[in-house]
Specification:
Distance between the termini: 88 Å
Structural class: alpha/beta
Oligomer: single chain
Largest sheet: 6 strands, mixed
Amino acid sequence: MKVIWDSKRNWTILLLIIVIVVMIFGQRAVSPSQMKMPTKTYKLDLEGIKERGVLRAITGSNSYSYFVYKGTPMGYEYDLLKALAEHLEVELEMVVAKNTEDFYRLLNEGKGDIIANNIIVTSDKKEKAAFTEYYNFVKQVLIQRKPDNWWQLSKDNLDKQLIRNPIELIGKEVHVQKNSSYALRLKNLSQEIGGDINIVYHPGNTPIEELIQQVSEGTIDYTVADNNLGLMNATYFKNIDIETDISFPQMVAWAVRKNSPELLAAINEWILDVRKNGKYLSIYNKYFKNSKAYSIRKDSNYFSVTGGSISIYDDLIKKYAKELDWDWRLLAAMIFKESKFQNDSESWAGARGLMQIMPATAERFGDSTQINIPEANIRMATKYLKTLCIFWEEIPDKEQRMKFILASYNVGEGHLLDARRLADKYGKDKSVWDGNVDSFLVKKASPEYYRDEVVYNGYCRGSEPFNYVKDVMEIYKHYKEHFPEV
């Protein structure tokens, strides 16, 4: 048999075989860690959030969205989210993203249910999440430094020394956070004006306030911010100019997962309502129009964004937290709940001082005449807490044990022992606070339970210790988000 060699056809076949072999063995050569696997989006809609009882909001720690001032959690986004959570009849839990680039990853991994951080809606962001109705409009503005003698200049002369036309940014260095809406706007602006703007990128966790301060101090010449943030900072940094717009008005909204249509619909309904009823405007004015309040916060040591202290008693709190082997932020949360760090605080029942010590307790663990001396008050409370730590050491789980200790500090051990016996009688776990002992402590306000044969200490307004534990643990979470452990 005569075989005819068709060189063109056979070389094509041979080449195809080689490509297939390379593809097969090339795939085998790639390790699992090198292969980019598709990320599965977490699924939880409004019904699941309500069942869980908690709305988790992803935000940043900054001077406008979410911060702590004099021990109190505050912020433009935080106040709006608190109102939303109240409307949805759930608790609010804040999740701070250390980097703005993490927002959408945390959302789609289920670490949070909503992103709230003054986010400008753009087409590329819509690919990552579903956006709510807008709740604000902003324009991006150039932040630049005024000349040294700016207060002596007429408006015309001042304008001549500043950039008023974005075309003048060609060849200039403008500093912004990497992957931010500001960076995207500058890229688009470069194309629009037909010349390159030298964009200098900073890490995504760089606060905009830090870049604005660098402009004011002369470290850098230009940055970009939303006009509301620029206005807020201009009340403190008097030598910055925020009058040059570099964008049209843009919508600001929250973001949820694309597979949460019920949550999206509920939020939209709420936003449309608060836009009309004035609640939104009052919250907006509180943070962006009250220039005096911002200036006072900015200069305070107790502003989490710039100061880093919770209270004037931080050193004492750290000292006695170490004796307890506690996280100092937990003890600080407890003191805030007891007295809001007011040493002269006194309750209707006679409890006094930072940790609201009763005179009898002060006499037991120290000297009642020193009850209003801050260190003595914390020292006596610490001694009492040590006895509670020993009393509840049989509770195996550390977090649950802490809740028993906190509740006992508020209402006494006897009522908790009653609640444990009730929990045991009704088939609940007497070593678990959440959903077990706590519910029976609340039930002790009802005759059906406080007259039960296993109850030795009678009536208890159990909602008070229940809320006390919940509040202290919530404040503790806020403090953990904003202040270092040591």
